[in-house]
């Protein structure tokens, strides 16, 4: 794989806050690499280090074979989270303005069509919807036809149809050889777009691989959710693991149980089991693990490790303080 974007043991501190604690990744030409992770994990700091807008305290970064700050800006496209163009420019004027910054820019009309703004080209930026504004921002960083794209939460606030437009555009760019690094909290977006995904937690990439690889290793088992108020003990002689379903509103959901490791072919026998024992239920839902399961598992593990380190450090400081008295 020809490395286009490389980070090796990147470190960055802001006072006592550790934003990056040895983050490493390699992205090849034409590859879409998705960065996922909780808020505060260091995703934006990592992107800033790779684009030359933040100087790391340790480690190294290379983009297109050079230090990020030395890369020809004509070859890069960077969309930050907080990009805010002038309100009183129309979508067309905005795209045309950025096109004017480059000697060999793309046709603004084509860019407007690519991001789905051809029908809103004469609308001031401030009067565009939130999703349209984000599309305009995406368009403004495509006018130079970059070799490498860094997209920090590219589809935030965009409606589902608009999101699909941006996804298709990213796929077309990658197919043409553009290397894309994107951050996202949308697991469906990462699973759809990314060739590989890296989960950043506590300043480190704790796992990376294709979505399928990550799901296979970290996603857990399939789940058959049964909507029932029947107690879990009623399933004692079922051959599959059974537990009370978790609810987003509380630790357990009294209206459902989850049976794990059930294949589609085994759903019928489970139903026979329920009916043979007159166990009442109102619905069944079988699901395979996905990237969201990976995210929840790994982020939770990383948070437990972070908490353990903080607790260990606090205990050590307390012990040292006691010895000096």
What can you tell me about this protein's structure?
With 325 residues, the chain is an alpha/beta fold. The chain has two domains: 3-216, Rossmann fold (3-Layer(aba) Sandwich), CATH 3.40.50; 221-287. It has nine helices and 13 strands. The strands form three sheets. It has a six-stranded mixed β-sheet, sandwiched between helices. The chain has a four-stranded antiparallel β-sheet with strand order 11-12-10-13, with no helix packed on it. The chain has a three-stranded antiparallel β-sheet with strand order 2-1-4, covered by helices on one side. A hairpin with a 2-residue loop joins β8 and β9 (204-209). α2 crosses α3 (108-114), α2 packs parallel to α4 and α7 crosses α9 (291-323). The radius of gyration is 24 Å and the shape is globular. The model has no long low-confidence stretch (mean pLDDT 89).
Distance between the termini: 58 Å
Q: Give the SSE order as H and E letters.
A: EEEHEEHHHEHEHEEHEEEHEH
CATH homologous superfamily (4th level) name of the largest domain: P-loop containing nucleotide triphosphate hydrolases
- Give the averaged pLDDT, no decimals: 89
């Amino acid at each position: 794989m020809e490395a286009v974007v490389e980070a090796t043991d990147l470190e960055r501190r802001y006072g006592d806050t550790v934003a990056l604690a040895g983050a490493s990744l390699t992205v090849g030409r034409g590859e879409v690499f998705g960065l996922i992770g909780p808020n505060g994990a260091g995703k934006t700091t990592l992107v800033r280090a790779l684009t030359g807008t933040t100087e790391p305290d340790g480690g190294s970064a290379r983009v297109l074979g050079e230090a990020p700050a030395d890369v020809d800006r004509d070859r890069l496209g960077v969309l930050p989270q907080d990009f805010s163009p002038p309100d009183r420019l129309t979508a067309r004027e905005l795209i045309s303005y950025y096109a004017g910054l480059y000697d060999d820019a793309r046709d603004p009309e084509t860019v407007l069509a690519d991001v789905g703004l051809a029908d809103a080209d004469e609308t001031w930026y401030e009067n565009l919807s939130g999703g349209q504004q984000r599309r305009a921002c995406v368009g403004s960083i495509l006018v130079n036809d970059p070799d490498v794209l860094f997209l920090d939460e590219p589809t935030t606030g965009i409606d589902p149809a608009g999101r699909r437009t941006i996804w298709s555009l990213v796929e077309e760019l990658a197919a043409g050889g553009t290397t894309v690094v994107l951050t996202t909290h949308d697991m469906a977006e990462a699973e759809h777009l990314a060739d590989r995904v890296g989960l950043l937690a506590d300043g480190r990439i704790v796992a990376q691989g294709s979505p399928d690889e990550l799901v296979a290793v970290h996603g857990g088992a399939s789940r058959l959710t049964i909507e029932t108020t029947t107690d879990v003990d009623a399933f004692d002689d079922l051959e599959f693991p059974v537990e009370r379903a978790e609810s987003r509103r509380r630790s357990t959901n009294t209206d459902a149980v989850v049976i794990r490791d059930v294949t589609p072919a085994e759903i019928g026998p489970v139903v026979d089991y329920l009916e043979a024992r007159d166990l009442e239920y109102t619905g069944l839902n079988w699901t395979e693990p996905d990237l969201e399961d990976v995210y929840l598992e790994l982020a939770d593990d990383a948070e437990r490790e972070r908490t353990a380190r903080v607790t260990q450090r606090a205990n050590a400081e307390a012990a040292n303080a006691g010895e000096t008295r």
